[in-house]
What does this fold into?
Amino acid sequence: MNKRSGFTIVELLVVIVVIGILAAVVIVSYSGISRKAIISTLQSDLDSASKQIKIAYTVNGQNPTTTSTDCTTSPDTSTNKCLKLSPGNSQNNYRTSNTSSPSFYIELVNGSECYAIADDSSPSTCTGYPTIRIGSQTWMQYNLNVGTRVDAAGLQTVGQKWCYGNNEQNCTDYGGLYQWDLIKTSGGAGQTDICPAGFHVPTRTELNVTLVNYLGGPSVAGGILKETGTTHWNSVNVGASDMSGLRLVGGGEWASGAFSNLKVYGNYWTGTQTNATYAYDVHTLNGFTSSFENSIDKTVAMSVRCIKN
It folds into this structure.
């Protein structure tokens, strides 16, 4: 009788398939464990960074205006805090405001993972948009710049944006200019208006009451909201301190067929309409420390700054 030795081809194929399946399971399991470990280090580093910034505030009477991660070249000072991070983690964003109720926001990244912390919150996944917490509100740090640029004329349609002077670079520097009816149109899943999912165009109350009053009222809020210097404002940029961290810029406007007031006006829509033709805005000017509210024709194209839901 012939004794059988070894495996048949079919059996070998079955063994190879089984080994492949087991290897895939191991790889997936390892990837999941590795991702959890990365997230854990990001969350731990953020908790530690938050505590260090609060200690710095206690010692120096203000939040550090900058942070670093190389303590040899950029050590602790009265205005800088060096954060010691776990291997593979790096800082993606840091913003602070030193108003009567100081706030801060930090983002850390490791590969495709991004986590952030603000003030007394717990670490959470990044929104993908740099934000700053002011009082009870969380705002985007930059003017909205979404859509495809088209030359300004007539009425905008969904997916469009206008750039001052029909120049794309101005959208990069100042954000897009949008008419009111467009900003109230949902752009996609999870959106309530033109702002990305998780954010919305601020109401009149959120922008001109809650925020402005938190910063001391209309007589001083303009300067606290404005970016300092003359890169995005005309000289002289009166009273600009950017103590809020919101760094509003003078993006100008489009009205009656023409662009005007670049670096002079920072006009920001609210989502609150006055009537069928007009809606409220809040604006700052290079020559004033105050902030102002107007009721503006909805066909005027102005800047948008989104607030977190």
